[in-house]
Amino acid sequence: MTVFSGVIFTIGLGVLLIAVMKSLILEQVLTGGIGSIILEQAPTEVGSANIVSSVLLAYRGLDTLGELTVLFVAATAIGLVLGQRSPDTKHDSEAGFILRSAADLLFPFMIMLGAYIILHGHITPGGGFQGGAILAAAFFIPILASPASPLNHKVSSLIEGLAGTAFILIGLFALVGKGYFLAPLFGTGDIGALFSAGSLPLLYLAVGLKVGSELAGLLARLQEV
Amino acid sequence: MTETIGIQLVSYSGAMGLILLGIFALVNYEHLIRVIFGLILLEAGVNLFLITLAYRADAVAPIMIEGQTAAMVDPIPHALVLTAIVIGVAVQALALALVIKTYQKYGTLNTRILAQRIAEESGTRMIEGIPTEVKKV
């Protein structure tokens, strides 16, 4: 009975969505013209070659702070739900020689790639979130290869807290200096240069470190169960 | 022009298909991991739909490169999807953590059995999947 009503509901929703498609406005900027205004003004106001980055960190910087908060709350809740591993539980057995060597070999390159993506977030596709995910993977692969040497949760929490504080502090400096929370600081610089777009690279560095340490801690906790 | 409409049609249908599959899995399956997979499909569908809205045939990605004159797509849906992906990962991880705890406590992930066990523990009775209070005689 439940399955039958579920199927009927899904089919009904599908018909509704097809009906919506007929009245969908395509080929237009849908966000009420704000998109085109941002495309026009972002280069002179923020100076970031990647306009998605300038939306994310300058125009919607407060939203990004909220997003970091959601990530933090989720990581905290996972720590709360899964709890600490008791010290006498047995670890999974070590992986084979090939996997362990490959994990050691990959580690520096993944750190380098993650740092590159974070630091070039304002001029190329990428940024703090993507680079942070790669950093988290770099720290998680060695844990999978040799579970007996787990992640130090104290260090990862410390990095996470410092990065979050740095993000808020940059925002507060902008509030004092320019009158708006998270307003871009230090001028725009040359568009496309590594040292451009004012405080955006600093903010992305904070985001990258925070996301990286948070995801690494989160994955490690799920693996430790 | 018709070609671009075709691309958007395919993309929109894909997004709606993912959303419907996700809702179907959420409603019909009884295994909690499959329910989480439904949630993941639903999120992917919503993200694809937002990206479809931003698509324009003659436009390039909103990243400025020297000497480029083509129009750029609306950057706001892209930023929103970036946010949505990160939040989605956090939600999935939390859901998996809760599933791990549920399995440790009850030894099963079947929602029907779980609902019955929980109803027994809390002294309620099941009517069509919904626990109701048992009248004490």
Characterization of this structure:
The complex is a heterodimer of chains A (225) and B (137). Chain A is mainly alpha-helical. Chain A has one domain (2-224). Chain A is built from eight helices and no strands. In chain A, helix 3 (51-59) packs across helix 4 (61-82), helix 6 runs parallel beside helix 8 (200-224) and helix 7 runs antiparallel to helix 8. Chain A is globular, with a radius of gyration of 22 Å. The two termini of chain A are 37 Å apart. In chain A, 36% of the residues are buried. The mean pLDDT of chain A is 81. Chain B is mainly α and 137 residues long. Chain B has a domain at 2-75. Helices cover 68% and strands 6% of the residues of chain B. Chain B has a two-stranded antiparallel ribbon. In chain B, a hairpin with a 2-residue loop joins strand 1 (124-127) and strand 2 (130-133). Chain B is elongated and about 70 Å long. Chains A and B meet through helix 1, helix 2, helix 3, helix 4 and helix 8 of A and helix 1 and helix 3 of B.
Keywords:
heterodimer, A: 225 residues, mainly alpha, 8 helices, B: 137 residues, two-stranded antiparallel sheet, elongated
What topology does this entry show?
The complex is a heterodimer of chains A (225) and B (137).
Chain A: H1 2-22, H2 34-45, H3 51-59, H4 61-82, H5 97-119, H6 128-145, H7 153-178, H8 200-224
Helix pairs in contact in A: 3-4, 4-8, 5-6, 6-8, 7-8
Chain B: H1 2-28, H2 32-54, H3 75-106, H4 111-121, E1 124-127, E2 130-133
Antiparallel strand pairs in B: 1-2
Biggest sheet layout of chain B? 2 strands, antiparallel
Q: What pattern of helices and strands is seen along the backbone of chain A? A: HHHHHHHH
Helical residue percent band of chain B: 55-70%
User: Main sheet of chain A?
Assistant: none
Radius of gyration of chain A: 22 Å
What is the 3D shape of chain A? globular
Biggest interface and its residues per chain?
A-B, 58 and 48 residues
**Helix-strand string of chain B:** HHHHEE
Let me know the number of strands of chain B: 2
Strand content of chain B: 5-15%
Q: Mean pLDDT across all residues of chain A, rounded?
A: 81
